[in-house]
Design brief:
about 280 residues; globular; phosphoric diester hydrolase activity
Length: about 280
């Protein structure tokens, strides 16, 4: 994990050129990676194939479907409150329009965040980060994605403070993970709360992920979570060799879910957590 790579980099300076050799010399992570393990079932923005994303309805559905984690997206409102929203604009998932941080929390709470998905969800509100922590802590894991960090200065500190206030920042807290496409944001968050697991998100890149990137990530991250189109058995093995885990996104096809499980991924991020459950059930005890 993070501390492993400090030793790994020292070994690299002594002339070990191959990342896998370096990890072997430094000592492997104590994480066990094997084909018989349970693959974490991560509900993308909640069970967003069945309910409006990033709402309590979607999170309740994920619980009902026995997901291991809900994945949520966080941004800041105009008045600096941490709220759940994936897009920079509110147009797609509410009856409002404009940029998230042009609205105060009180104004965001007036919006309908459910009707766009179906009339049965009319009146669903945009939740705050603290509301989600209070409602689901101890019931399900929470994978927190920091969105647009450069547009929301101080968001890392606010996420960290909310976790600290609830004693959710303790060592061996395996049910909280913080991730972002902004890798600098994750390095900063790791410095704030080093006992909370962190992850780097990777968009699709035909050139893949280099050993140099993995070595850098492992100094501050516990997970590498790439677009699933980048993932093959070799990448899974390399990430594991650097002492990290992998939970690719967003997979809504049963055959691909099964294939990724065969590769040994640690988690699957899906809009349909029941599909991940189906993949786990027949193949893993």
């Amino acid at each position: 994990m993070k501390t492993l790579l400090m030793a790994l980099l020292l070994v690299g300076l002594l002339g070990i050129s191959n990342g896998q050799d370096a990890v072997s010399a430094a000592g492997k992570s104590n994480v066990s990676h094997n084909a018989a393990k349970h693959t974490m079932n991560i509900a993308h923005r909640g069970a967003s194939g069945y309910a409006p994303e990033n709402t309590m309805a979607a999170f309740d559905k994920a619980l009902e479907m026995k997901a291991d984690y809900i994945e949520i997206d966080v941004q800041l409102s105009k008045d600096g409150k941490v709220v759940l929203m994936h897009d920079a604009m509110i147009d797609r998932t509410t009856d409002g329009s404009g940029i998230v941080d042009d609205y105060t929390l009180e104004e965001l709470k007036q919006l309908d965040a459910g009707s766009w998905f179906g009339p049965q969800f009319a009146g669903e509100q945009i939740p705050t980060f603290e509301e989600v922590l209070d409602a689901y802590r101890g019931k399900i894991g929470i994978l927190i994605e920091i969105k647009n960090a450069s547009q929301h200065p101080g968001i890392e500190e606010k996420v960290a403070a909310a976790l600290e206030e609830r004693n959710m920042d303790k060592p061996n807290n395996g049910k909280i993970i913080v991730q972002s496409f902004d890798h600098g944001s994750i390095a900063h968050f790791n410095a704030l709360l080093p006992n909370v697991d962190t992850g780097v998100l990777m968009g699709y890149n035909a050139e893949g992920i280099s050993d140099a990137q993995l070595a850098q990530f492992a100094t501050y991250a516990d997970y590498v979570n790439p677009n699933h189109h980048m993932v093959d058995a070799d990448l899974v093995s390399r990430i594991h060799d650097y002492g990290m885990r992998i939970a690719p996104y967003t997979i809504n096809d049963q055959s691909r879910i099964n294939e990724l499980m065969e590769y040994g991924v640690d988690g699957i991020i899906s809009d349909y957590p029941d599909l991940v459950g189906h993949g786990n059930a027949p193949q893993y005890n």
